[in-house]
Amino acid sequence: MTIQSISGALPLGGLQDASASQRPQPLGQTDRTAAPAFSERLGHAVEDLARAQSEAGEKAAAFERGETGNLAEVMISQQVSSLGFQLALNVRNKALGAYRDIMNMPV
User: Fold this and answer.
1) Is residue 87 part of a domain?
2) Residue 16 lies in a domain
3) CA-CA distance, 68 to 82, in Å (whole number)?
4) pLDDT, tens digit (0-9, with 9 covering 90-100), for 27-54
5) If phi over 0 gives left and psi between -120 and 50 gives alpha, with beta otherwise, what is residue 8?
6) Which domain covers residue 56, as residue numbers?
7) What's a BP term from Gene Ontology annotated to this protein (predicted)?
8) What is the domain count for the chain?
9) Can you give the pTM of this predicted structure?
């Protein structure tokens, strides 16, 4: 796998010979069906986090009631939930820090 295949960048010589279908579209004419928007990705991530947390709670409650004896599965689901929450918290903190940096920029 090359960097060109990851980024989709054309080599410098290929920029002059690129067909119209390979050239990037102007800013206002991008195809929005190609990839989900940032808000959609963020919404799905929050839903996945909520699902993982509720699943961990259900597994812990089932273990406490004696319905399952698999403590390892309960602990793993709680760790997955905890790591997901920590990731969400760090992403929020980074976004808030970037917002504060932008707001403090001189105009």
Assistant:
1) yes
2) no
3) 21
4) 555 555 678 888 899 899 999 999 999 9
5) left
6) 38-104
7) bacterial-type flagellum-dependent cell motility
8) 1
9) 0.60
